[in-house]
Sequence to fold (277 residues):
Amino acid sequence: MNNRILLFALVALTTLGACSTNNINQEDELKQYFDAQKVEGCFGLFDNGQGQFTIYNMPRYRDSAYLPASTFKIFNSLVALGTGRIFSDTVVVPWDGVVRMGPGGDTMHAWNKDMNMREAFAVSNVGFYQELARRIGRDTMQRMLDSIGYGNKKIGDKIDRFWLDNSLKISPDEQLGLVKKLYFRQLAFQNREQEIVKDMMIREKTDKYILAYKTGWGQTEKGNQLGWMVGWIEENRHPYFFVLNVESADPGIDMVNVRLNILKSILKEKGFFEGKK
Fold:
């Protein structure tokens, strides 16, 4: 364990807890976008410049916690880099030869090869990040979960499955808090490590906006499909942080498109993508 990391004090990820009702807009009309995709869920958007929240489904956003699924790759990447278990995003980790299936039951062909962290993050390669978790080890991972205050901080029985098997859970508000602190390099890691992960999260970059996010897809304890998108959209150097959480009992749901459709529909309604925010 890198000693400098242990010097940092506890960093709470909760964003909403310190805010008053004066800067929270609860928008029930955003339900239309979830209904159109036949899912339940919640959405949170934080305007950093104005300190203003837009939230749909406050109880779910604030008071409910869920497995992070592949959004945990944000934290896993930071810990792997911060502890030196992997030295950069370009270091190649060999494929272990296991053919893995995605949450929808499809063979994940994009995972079945040697790759570096940047490539693995982009395709959300579970096997790659399971190997990183094993390299980090239970004791170090637990110390980092505790020091950052990540969700319920529970690893459970398996060091390479706890973010997928409902041992570890995190609220949507905590997810938004994590990416906000990452953006401003306020987490208990060096700037270099946070900048690497921030850059890996960028998915769209135009002359009008930057859209950065990490997705997640897993199953709840009830067997429902759970999807996440957490990140930020930036226009004119002004960041807005968001979290989207969706759930469906339909095992055949097209979660990839459902998540993105809801997110972009809401952001478009709010006037994004035009470079005018």
About this structure: Strands lie at 24-26, 40-47, 52-56, 92-93, 115-116, 202-205, 210-219, 225-235, 238-248. The radius of gyration is 18 Å. Residues 198 and 256 are 21 Å apart (CA to CA). The longest strand covers residues 225-235.
